[in-house]
Amino acid sequence: MKDDECNDDTQSFILRIWNDAPAGSGKMKVWRGSIVHVGSGKRIYFHNLNSITSFIQQQTGMGPATLITWLRSLFRKGRPR
Predict the structure, then answer these.
(1) DSSP helix/strand/coil, 1
(2) Fewest CB within a 10 Å sphere: which of 5, 19, 20, 64?
C-alpha cells in the first residue's frame, strides 16, 4: 500500500522495543517491547516477536498470510528490489 492510499481501514500501532541488559554487564541481550493499538488503546508487553503479529491479527482481523506479507513489505521499503 502506498502512503497516499490510506483510508478508513487504516490501523495505527505504536511499537517500542528496548534492551534490558545494562551496557557492559556481560549479560545476554534480551529485547523486550510493547505495542499499542492506537484506536482502542489496548497494549501488550512482549519478549517474543511472534506476540507482535498475534496482537496485530487480533486487532485488525488480518489472516496470518496477509499479515506476514504486509510485515515483510514494511522491511523492504527503501531497499532496492
Answers:
(1) coil
(2) 5
Contact assessment for residue 65 and residue 53, using Cβ atoms and an 8 Å cutoff: no
3-class DSSP state for residue 4? helix
Read off the amino acid at residue 14: I
**The Cα angle at residue 33 between residues 28 and 34, in degrees rounded to 5:** 165
Q: What distance in Å separates the CA atoms of residue 53 and residue 15, rounded to the nearest whole number?
A: 12
How many whole angstroms from its chain centre is CA 33?
10
CA 8 to chain centre: 20
**Which residues sit opposite 33 in a β-bridge?**
17, 46
pTM over 0.70: no
